[in-house]
Amino acid sequence: MRSGNDNFQSHHAGHGAGPRQRRSAGPGDARVSAAPLRADAEIAEASDKMAALLKSIAHPGRLMILCVLRDGPRSVGELARAVGVREPAMSQQLAKLKADGFVDAIRQGRIVHYAIARAGIVELIHFLLARIHHLRPDGLDPAAETDPG
């Protein structure tokens, strides 16, 4: 099985991504030529895992759940009503988010409430929301435009 990193390397093999040429260091030249660049195995593995986590939340329903949970813990029924799905479907989405570490389940008697597991997740949601609100409908960042006059 090829990793995403293998695909990247093979895709870019003919586009100047080959081994760097070694050159002699002349007098006073502090630069030392580098060996061919290769992704570290740990970085490649971490990248694969991060991509899987991002894929987990790259689902509109799961993102809606996380947005609702920013305001505090909610039961399955409350989340289902807020998002507009049936409770069994909500339970499936919550199970995926819980398995991937995005939400925690908090039992209070017979009712289970779900909450965002870590503050960093709220920060990620805030980043995404800020990013989309700063983009124009055509996807361009208005801050990048210059005044022609």
In short:
This protein is mainly alpha-helical. Helix content is 48%, strand content 9%. The model is unreliable at 1-30 (pLDDT under 50).
Outline the fold blueprint.
Elements: H1 4-11, H2 41-57, H3 60-69, E1 74-75, H4 76-83, H5 87-99, E2 103-108, E3 111-116, H6 119-133
Antiparallel strand pairs: 1-3, 2-3
Helix pairs in contact: 4-5
Give a written overview of the molecule:
The chain has six helices and three strands; from the N terminus they run αααβααββα. It is mainly alpha-helical and 149 residues long. The protein has a three-stranded antiparallel β-sheet with strand order 1-3-2. β2 (103-108) and β3 (111-116) form a beta hairpin. α4 (76-83) packs across α5 (87-99). The radius of gyration is 23 Å and the shape is globular. Mean pLDDT is 77; it is low at 1-30.
Keywords for this structure?
single chain; 149 residues; mainly alpha; 3-stranded antiparallel beta sheet; 48% helix; disordered N terminus
**Distance N to C terminus:** 55 Å
Q: How many DSSP E strands? A: 3
Gyration radius, in Å: 23 Å
Q: Which structural category do the helix and sheet elements fall into?
A: mainly alpha
Major sheet: 3 strands, antiparallel
